[in-house]
Amino acid sequence: MIPNLLAASVVLGTMGWMKVPLDIMTITVAAISVGMAVDNTIHYIHRFKLEFRKTSNYEVSMKNSHNTIGRAMFYTSTTIIIGFLGFCYFKL
Question: What pTM was computed for the model?
C-alpha cells in the first residue's frame, strides 16, 4: 500500500512544485496514477507468485518477474503518463 501512496504523492507533489492548480482534470490525473499503481502491483504480485511456484527461489523469481512483467509495466505506465500529462494544462 505504501508504494501505491508514494505514486500519488509524487504526482501531486510534482504538480504542486510546478504550481499546477488543483481542478477536476488534475485530480483525475491523481486518481489515474493511483489506479496505475494498484494495477501494476496486482500484475507484479501475480507474476511473482507464478515464478515462485516454478523456481521456489525468491531472488530468481524476482529477477524473472522484472525481466518479463517489469518491462511491460514500465512502458505501459510511461505511455499513459505521457498521454494524460496534457490534462494538467488544458482548461475545459
Answer: 0.69
